[in-house]
């Protein structure tokens, strides 16, 4: 009976470690997307001397980065919650 308890506990610990690692990974990816978004926002504002077409592209990239950032944030929150339980 103690073997079953040990296996069950091991699975729980393994799952928590996995979710913690995934949480960290998602958080790092979120930060990368946020950084890219800020860079593209500055380009879109015209602080880099880009043409209007380049600025428009940067604006679109900033919006995509924002969506990606939100997705990574949601994933990180989910993994954080799962790691707690």
Automatic annotation (TrEMBL):
Disordered: annotated span: 1-85
Biased composition range(s): Polar residues: 1-38
Domain of life: Eukaryota
Compositional bias segments (type: Basic and acidic residues): 62-72
InterPro entries: Glc-repressible_Grg1
Name this polypeptide is given: Uncharacterized protein
Origin species: Leucosporidium creatinivorum
Lineage: Eukaryota, Fungi, Dikarya, Basidiomycota, Pucciniomycotina
